[in-house]
Amino acid sequence: MKLTRLLPLFALTALATFVAPAPAFAGSAAGSRTGAEKFGDATIRQFAEKVNATLDAKKVNLAIIARSGRPRSQLPQGITYTHVAIIVFEPVRSADGHIGHTYTVYNLYQGDQGRANRSYLAQDFTYDFVSGTAERDVAVFVPIEALQKRILAVIRSPAYQALHNPDYNLVTNPWVDRFDNCVTHTLKICVAAIYQTDDRARIYDNIRRYFKPTPVKLNGLQAFGSSFMSSVSRADMDKSGLQTASYDSLKAFFAENGLMEESMTISMD
């Protein structure tokens, strides 16, 4: 049975060591304070507690979680969230050596060494994740239990790092092994788990066969502004136009293939 003791939220940002080995839709950056600045830090902390408590009450050990780092009114049609990650219930050790269990988040972040076209992998907490939201909700879907275990096994293996491509593109084409963003990395990890392989060629072959990307209209992207447009490359563009992986297309992939246990939207209200 899953341990249900959650560490107090105020301690989450101070935790030093993970007992387990510690090893993002696009435009995701570490340390985003959009939500804290918009809604207030106290509200964000309460929201993080609510997300943790909701998942813990359902005994969720691993799920896919999404936030929108910009108001939805500014997002291209078909895109409802801008950052996707994997949230895991696991043991952590505080600075004083105490071991407790809480939810940690495995992210791909844009901006390695301050470069918009480079990404890196990082692990943080629910508070950090919801601190970056510009909306009052996050979305979560839970893979079936057997797949949760397989995804966690991939995260714990060298494949998690090996499948990461540091070349970042805001609208990465998931059918082409050229760039990465937070959703395509999450997709690769999930497909690696489904087929129990770390073979990139096989992973991409199955993505092309079974995953339906989200089409992206350029005029919609222009609403992001010049700083976001500088993160868009057409080097991997499909002949039909720009397409990418989104939270919604990832969720549809799981649902259509009988791989999703449940989905939910968790609101501040």
If you had to describe this structure to a student in words, what would you say it looks like?
Helix content is 32%, strand content 21%. The chain is of the alpha+beta class and 269 residues long. It has one domain (9-266). The chain is globular. The longest helix is centred in the first third of the chain and has 17 residues, at 41-57. The model is unreliable at 1-27 and 223-229 (pLDDT under 50). It is built from ten helices and nine strands. Helix 4 packs across helix 6 and helix 6 crosses helix 7 (200-210). Strands 1, 2, 3, 4, 5, 6 and 9 form a seven-stranded antiparallel β-sheet that branches. The protein has helices at residues 34-39, 41-57, 126-130, 145-155, 159-162, 182-195, 200-210, 218-221, 226-229, 247-256; strands at 17-18, 62-67, 83-93, 99-110, 119-125, 137-143, 214-215, 243-244, 260-267.
Helix-strand topology string: EHHEEEEHEHHHHEHHEHE
Q: List segments where confidence is low: pLDDT < 50 over at least 5 consecutive residues.
A: 1-27, 223-229
Q: What is the mean predicted local confidence, pLDDT?
A: 86
What class, by secondary structure content? alpha+beta
What is the number of beta strands? 9
Radius of gyration equals: 17 Å
Number of helices in the DSSP assignment: 10
What portion of residues belong to β-strands?
Answer: 15-25%
How many structural domains can be distinguished in the coordinates?
Answer: 1
